[in-house]
Amino acid sequence: xxxxxxxxxFSIIMTGATPENRTAPSPPPxxxxxxxxxxxxxxxxxxxxxxxxxxxxxxxxLLGYDIGxxxxxxxxxxxxxxxxxxxxxxxxxxxxxxxxxGSCAAGRTSDWIGRRYTIVLAGAIFFAGAILMGLSPNYAxxxxxRFIAGIGVGYALMIAPxxxxxxxxxxxxxxxxxxxxxxxxxxxxxxxxxxxxxSNLPLKVGWRLMLGIGAVPSVxxxxxxxxxxxSPRWLVMQGRLGDAKRVLDKTSDSPTEATLRLEDIKHAxxxxxxxxxxxxxxxxxxxxxxxxxREL
Length: 296
What we know:
Blueprint: H1 2-15, H2 47-57, H3 61-81, H4 85-113, H5 115-134, H6 139-167, H7 173-176, H8 179-198, H9 203-212, H10 215-225, H11 232-237, H12 241-251, H13 255-268, H14 284-287, H15 290-295
Helix pairs in contact: 2-6, 2-8, 3-4, 3-8, 3-9, 4-5, 4-6, 5-6, 5-9, 5-10, 8-9, 12-13
C-alpha cells in the first residue's frame, strides 16, 4: 500500500490521467450480421397439403379395422359355421398373403390410372370384400370375401404413403408420412368398438354386421379422396406440366420450393429443364414407370 501511494503522483505526471480528465473505455464495436446469415424462420404449416395427407393416410384405417374386427368376430364365426381352429387360423392369417398381392399390383396400377384413382379403387375393392364377408353363408364364401378385402387392404397400404410423399412439402414430409401408422391403430380401435357394439346381437347376425359394417368407411374415404388433387409427380409423368405446377403451388411452402420441386420431377421424367409448356409429350417408358421397375 505504501509503495502504491508513493508511485501514484509519478504515474499521474507521466500519463496526465487525473480523476478529472480520465475517460471510460469505449465499448467494443458491434458487428453487423447479414440477414442471410441469420437462421431462417420455420415455414408455416401448409394446411392444404396437410389435409390431403390426412385424407390419403386414412385409407390405412381399412387395414386396422380388418385386423381389429376379425380378432373378435372369429369367436362367433367359429361357433356359427362350426369350423375348427385350423380354419380359423387360416381365415385370420390369410390377410397378409392377400394384401401382398394388392401391394404388388398397386404400384403398376397407380402409374396407369394415377395415385388418386388408385386410392378410390382400393376403397371400392375393400367395399366389395366387406359386403361379401357380411353376406357369407359358409366358410368358402367367407374366405372369398376375405380374399377380395385383402387385396383392397394391400392397395390402400401401398398407395397412401406414395401419395403423401409426393404431395407433401419438404419441411413436413417426414411428419405427414407417419400418419398411415396412426390411422392403422385408429382402425384397430374401431374394429374393437364394432365387436363390442354387435356382440349382443343374435349369433347369425352379429359377426356378419361386424364384418359388413367395414364397407362404410371405405365409401366415405373414396368420396373424400375425389376432392383431393392428383399427385404432381404423376401429372408430370403424363406430360401435364401446367396441372402439376398448379398443384405444387398449393402444396409447397413457397413459390421457390414449388419451382425446385417441379424441376426435380421434370428431370426424373426426362423432360428438358427449359420446357415450360402446359402439356408435353412424354415417352411411354417414363409415363408408365417402366424405367423405375427396371431399376428395381
